[in-house]
Amino acid sequence: MLPTLLDVQASVGLALVSHLFYANYEPSAPTVLAVYLVGSLSYLFLAATSHPSSSPFDWIVSLAVLQTAYTASLLSSIAAYRLFFHRLRSFKGPSSLALSKWAWVPTDLAGQRPAKVTSLHATYGDVVRVGPRELSINDVGAINQILGGQSACRKGPWYTAAHGGKGPRSLSLHVTIDTGDHRSRRRIWDAGFSVAALRSYEAQLRQTTRKLLTQLDARTGGEVAMDQWCQFYAFDVMSELGFSRSFDLIGKGSFSKPIELLEGAMQAIMVLGAVPYLSAVARVAPNPIKDFEDFTEEALRERVGRSAEKKRGDDDRADIFTHLLGEDKATGWKHTWNELNADAGLVVVAGSDTTSSVLAMVIFHLVKHPDVLERVRKELHDVFGHDYEEEEHDLDFDKLAKECVWLNAVLNETMRLYPPVASGLQRESPSGASSSLVLNLKHSASTVVVPPATILSVPTTALHHDPRNFSPSPDAFRPERFVDPSKEERFEAAAFMPFGYGPTGCVGKKLAWMEMRLMLANFIGRFDANFAPGFDPEKYVRECIKDTFTMTRTAPIRMVLSRRAR
């Protein structure tokens, strides 16, 4: 049996009704799949009862014809609407991105979203349509209006994908969308990065730095993967300061479970972020995000167990979870277990993956630019004395922050070239017929009227490499631009946001600065470094730096270290 013309027409009509329903209510992916499956099974049942003489093969063929008509009509309707009738139809951008976010998946798998977005802005201008209902705004004037504390925008659907369909009390601070919840939780987090808390972490930072230097000392004269040692260092720092336990990657000197799980999870998050409605499906299937969460939950259980023992009289060394296990005194907010587990993952990701990437690329550029390295080294000698290498682990944190201008400039310039979160952060404008958002753009001295319920992003990499913000040579490594910005052709301080922006900016940036300054000052004082034979730094920048939400690399930065003469 074959479906009649009326059956096919009914499928087409149902597709149009489905499009109208989906556009207004946006059901979850599991709901859509369930309805599709129930509808198909219902048709097979009706076919079997109304045409009992036909074979099951005939019923399946008939269903396939109707499904094809339904799917083709639905996709055609969606395509026509998005290209010709959508509220963003007047904004420029590639048709493929206007049709579907699936067009981003190959780019995200290749880790090239920041480069792609920068290229799109060069082609289409400061406002580009990068999704069916998404705009990328490459203008410094839009930053505060989209990401600032007084903005009417809220976190967009990327954050839904990142938490994988978990309930509202099962989210990390980073993906918490409700502003009231975020505010209460942020106050708890802030206590873990207060001046007093940071002081309490100094001794552990020095100890972990000493362990790293000892291991690198033992490997002088041979080839080392410098970026991997930066990862080992950052992971061990964060495990000690986050959970009062060490993953001991420095001691092992090799990749182990934490890094492997994290890299798999970050790649999955990047791809799911392009197609957020898949996150709920991924949540019920084996995936690297769940594996990573299982690992962090194990670390958290051990940490909470030790906390209970310490309450019975053992000595308690303060760490970040000392504060996260407390409550917000203003509201009485206290984390649920699932929130603590989600925050355990955030501690690992935000506290290690981003920091290690910056450290690796700073060392890369210092080796590539020996003149800059010598200026930083001279400054360190001027501040701490020519024999400061003798007491490397006792460098004063305040002096590193306030007196080491070139050291800080090198860090800033590296984060400008390679922002830790390179693609920028996503927001959604208010919904409702009268909720258009008016953005005042600085560079073009114009306004843009953003329709309601539009997803917005400010592309960090594009901003950092825009000659209207940083000139001369915005793509070049020039730390002097941060030494004396007044001498630059262009230096738009507001466009520099490596740690995010506004009330949702990086809560741990002060700790990250302490960690990076201490490690680099000690490394520069103790070692000379050269690229290993056969290593091509220009090719490395072109081919091996990728974006998987945080910046990562596809090959090691191979170097040969030697101990500096005293």
Automatic annotation (TrEMBL):
Pfam family, one: p450
Annotated CDD domains: CYP67-like
GO MF terms, alphabetically ordered: heme binding; iron ion binding; monooxygenase activity; oxidoreductase activity, acting on paired donors, with incorporation or reduction of molecular oxygen
UniProt-listed Gene3D superfamilies: Cytochrome P450
PROSITE patterns attached to this UniProt entry: CYTOCHROME_P450
UniProt KW Nucleotide-binding keyword: no
Binding-site positions, heme: 506
Ranges that cross the membrane: 32-53, 59-84
Keywords: Heme, Iron, Membrane, Metal-binding, Monooxygenase, Oxidoreductase, Transmembrane, Transmembrane helix
Cofactor(s) annotated in UniProt: heme
InterPro entries registered for this protein in UniProt: Cyt_P450, Cyt_P450_CS, Cyt_P450_E_grp-I, Cyt_P450_sf, Cytochrome_P450_monoxygenase
Keyword Nucleotide-binding: no
Family recorded in the similarity comment: Belongs to the cytochrome P450 family.
Name used for this protein in its record: Cytochrome P450
Taxonomic lineage from the root: Eukaryota, Fungi, Dikarya, Basidiomycota, Ustilaginomycotina
